[in-house]
Amino acid sequence: MIRNVRLIGRDGLWDIEVEDARIARIVPAGEGTGDLLADGAGGLASAPFVEPHVHLDTTLTAGEPRWNASGSLWEGIAVWSERKQSLTRQDVIDRATEVLRWYAANGVLHVRSHVDVTDPGLVALDAMIEVRENVRDVVNLQLVAFPQEGIVSFDDGPQLLEKAAERGVDVIGAIPHFEDTREDGVRSLEIAFDIAERHGLLLDAHCDEIDDEQSRFVEVLATLARRGGLRGRATASHTTAMGSYNGAYSYKLQRVLARSGINLVSNPLANLCLQGRFDDYPKRRGLTQVKEMLAAGVNVAFGHDDVMDPWYPLGTASSLQVALVGIAAAQLTGTAEIDEAFRMITDRAARVLHLGDAYGLEESRPASLVILPATSPYDAIRRQTRPTHVISNARLIARTPTTPTHLTWPDEPPRQITFTHPTAP
Ligand SMILES: [Zn+2]
Question: Domain Amidohydrolase: where (predicted)?
Answer without folding.
Answer: 39-385
